[in-house]
């Protein structure tokens, strides 16, 4: 059995010659061998297909979950585990924007674990902390003043930005704003992948026929109308006619093509196996420095590295434990014939396996050890921001301009 990773062994890894921590898990479709799954589609309704080298051969592969998507899933796992509402303790630093008190309860609370650009997100940038615009607040200054030689402020307010990466591309320095690379990356890839087909058809219980009536696209957003005077106009100013199937009435002839694009439907893929690969770069973590009061201490740096590595491990572990349901018709399960273990890669390429017990306990121990050496404590109450007046108004106008949905 692999040795369980403890705080002491993690500290030893970071003070030694370890260069990476990784976890590779082989996955299969929940439906069993041969079952199809549906990858994400990109511009032009394309799958992300590529060949990868495995055992000296080029293998057809398809991306099932990107680096960005895996990071988002890990952040959501942290949020679900540690965040229990702004009136309770959060266990890890969290910044949130409270849209409820601003009169937008339907938006709710958005935290630094929800927004796509973490502490550098425009939603935070356009909010206020204790009456100050975010960029001028202590939290905002921690972002704009951060660098690899002084990451103490980010460690205090948003350590997840140091783990998953952050780029303040819209701040006062524009593209030259604060930028930290990801130290944790993960993705899910299907190997030996073959594309399938997807038929489409529909039987209308009302039996609406194509020649039942002349149907027009409605100008008021209510989809369709039988009155030409209420119709939207084409480029020549004539009422726009549409088919019953375009209003979701009428039958759809069984086909393998999209009736709008006239292109063959993407029908998912089948594959021999998939892999979830997660890597934490220890050299990238060791590049970060954490002075306090203008003074740097190597023991303090090492404690911060340990806490950030524990945070990355916890994020990955908690996400994995929640299952690998990536999207509709893309549920993956572990291959029980392929035992998985966390691994440490040494500087000479040698590999050591270890197991993860309670990753949340490991994270709390690492954070406490960092605090004991003088690093900022991880505040257990979220920092609450309020959206600026212009942001609230923008959200309201956007909602008014959207389609009207009637009960």
Question: Stretches where pLDDT falls below 50 for ≥5 residues?
Answer: none
Number of strands: 24
Helix content: 25-40%
Total helices: the number is: 10
Largest sheet: 10 strands, mixed
Q: How many separate structural domains?
A: 2
Polypeptide structure, described:
With 407 residues, this protein is of the alpha+beta class. It folds into two domains: 3-194 and 267-398, no CATH class; 199-265, no CATH class. The protein is 26% helix and 25% strand. The chain has ten helices and 24 strands. The strands form six sheets. Strands 1, 2, 3, 4, 11, 19, 20, 21, 22 and 23 form a ten-stranded mixed β-sheet that branches. Strands 6-5-24-7-8 form a five-stranded mixed β-sheet. Strand 7 and strand 8 (132-133) form a beta hairpin.
Would you summarize the structure shown here?
This protein has 407 residues and is an alpha+beta fold. 26% of the residues lie in helices and 25% in strands.
Q: Can you give keywords for this protein?
A:
407 residues, alpha+beta, 2 domains, ten-stranded mixed β-sheet, 10 helices, 24 strands
List the helices and strands and how they pair.
Blueprint: E1 3-4, H1 7-15, E2 18-29, E3 49-54, E4 57-65, H2 67-82, E5 95-98, E6 109-111, H3 122-125, E7 127-129, E8 132-133, H4 138-144, H5 152-157, H6 159-164, E9 166-167, E10 179-180, E11 184-191, E12 194-195, E13 200-202, E14 215-217, E15 224-225, E16 241-242, E17 252-255, E18 269-270, E19 273-281, H7 282-286, H8 298-321, E20 324-325, E21 331-334, E22 342-346, E23 351-355, H9 359-372, E24 383-387, H10 389-401
Parallel strand pairs: 1-23, 5-24
Antiparallel strand pairs: 2-19, 2-21, 2-22, 3-4, 4-11, 5-6, 7-8, 7-24, 9-10, 11-19, 12-18, 13-17, 14-15, 14-16, 20-21, 22-23
Helix pairs in contact: 1-8, 2-8, 8-9
């Amino acid at each position: 059995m692999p040795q369980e990773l403890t705080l002491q062994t993690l500290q030893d890894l970071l003070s030694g010659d370890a260069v990476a921590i990784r976890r590779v898990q082989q996955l299969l479709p929940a439906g069993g061998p041969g079952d199809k799954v549906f990858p994400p589609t990109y511009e032009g309704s394309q799958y992300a297909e590529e060949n990868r080298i495995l055992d000296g051969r080029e293998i057809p592969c398809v991306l099932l979950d990107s680096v960005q998507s895996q990071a988002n899933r890990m952040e959501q796992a942290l949020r679900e585990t540690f965040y229990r509402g702004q009136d309770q303790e959060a266990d890890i630093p969290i910044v949130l924007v409270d849209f409820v008190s601003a009169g937008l309860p339907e938006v709710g609370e958005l935290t630094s674990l929800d927004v796509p650009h973490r502490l550098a997100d425009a939603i935070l940038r356009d909010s206020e902390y204790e009456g100050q615009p975010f960029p001028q607040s202590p939290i905002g200054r921690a972002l704009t003043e951060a660098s690899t030689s002084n990451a103490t402020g980010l460690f205090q307010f948003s350590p997840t930005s140091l783990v998953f990466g952050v780029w303040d591309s819209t701040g006062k320095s524009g593209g030259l704003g604060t930028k930290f690379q990801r130290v944790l990356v993960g993705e899910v890839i299907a190997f030996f992948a073959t594309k399938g087909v997807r038929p489409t058809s529909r039987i209308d219980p009302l039996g609406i026929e194509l020649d039942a009536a002349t149907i027009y696209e409605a100008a008021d957003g209510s989809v369709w109308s039988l009155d030409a005077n209420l119709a939207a106009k084409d480029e020549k100013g004539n009422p726009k006619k549409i088919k019953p199937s375009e209003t979701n009435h009428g039958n759809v002839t069984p086909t393998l093509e999209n009736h709008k694009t006239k292109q063959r439907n993407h029908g998912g893929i089948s594959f021999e196996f998939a892999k979830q690969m997660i890597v934490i770069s220890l050299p990238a973590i060791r590049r970060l420095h954490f002075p306090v009061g203008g003074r740097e201490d190597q023991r303090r740096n090492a404690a911060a590295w340990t806490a950030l590595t524990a945070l990355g491990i916890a994020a990955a572990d908690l996400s994995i434990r929640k299952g690998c349901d990536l999207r509709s018709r893309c549920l993956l399960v572990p291959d029980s014939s392929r035992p998985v273990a966390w691994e440490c890669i040494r500087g000479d390429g040698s590999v050591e396996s270890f197991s993860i017990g309670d990753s949340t306990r490991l994270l709390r121990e690492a954070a406490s050890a960092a605090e004991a050496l003088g690093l900022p404590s991880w505040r257990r109450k979220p920092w609450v921001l309020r959206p600026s007046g212009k942001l609230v108004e923008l959200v309201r106008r956007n909602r008014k301009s959207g389609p009207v949905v009637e009960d």
